[in-house]
């Protein structure tokens, strides 16, 4: 037998009834952000080589490039930054396309620059 839940919607929604559409929209997105915050944090702090390869494949890299980039990132302790993020940062730094940047990183070039980019970002964050 199903348990009947009392209909208390009117009471529970009183605080929403006086809001206009813009305020409701803003509240919705604020609450949606709070709901996904733990997921974003989990994704930021927990990754794996297979997840990072999958991200790179979805960015358009082939499996050789994805494997090479993830292996090197893991070796250098950069995998937690996100393999796709590494390629994007390198692309922004060099002004090259994401495709060109991925090719270079997969061939072992550009990693020193990436390490320097993240080292400078960390120093700037500490200085602030």
From TrEMBL:
InterPro entries: Cbl-dep_enz_cat, Lys-AminoMut_A
Stretches assigned to the D-Lysine 5,6-aminomutase alpha subunit domain: 4-118
Sorted UniProt keywords: Isomerase
Gene3D superfamilies the UniProt entry points to: 6.10.250.2220, Ornithine 4,5 aminomutase S component, alpha subunit-like
GO molecular function, one term: cobalamin binding
Enzyme class, broadest EC rank: isomerase
EC identifiers of the protein: 5.4.3.5
Official protein name in the record: D-ornithine 4,5-aminomutase subunit alpha
Origin organism lineage: Bacteria, Thermotogati, Thermotogota, Thermotogae, Kosmotogales
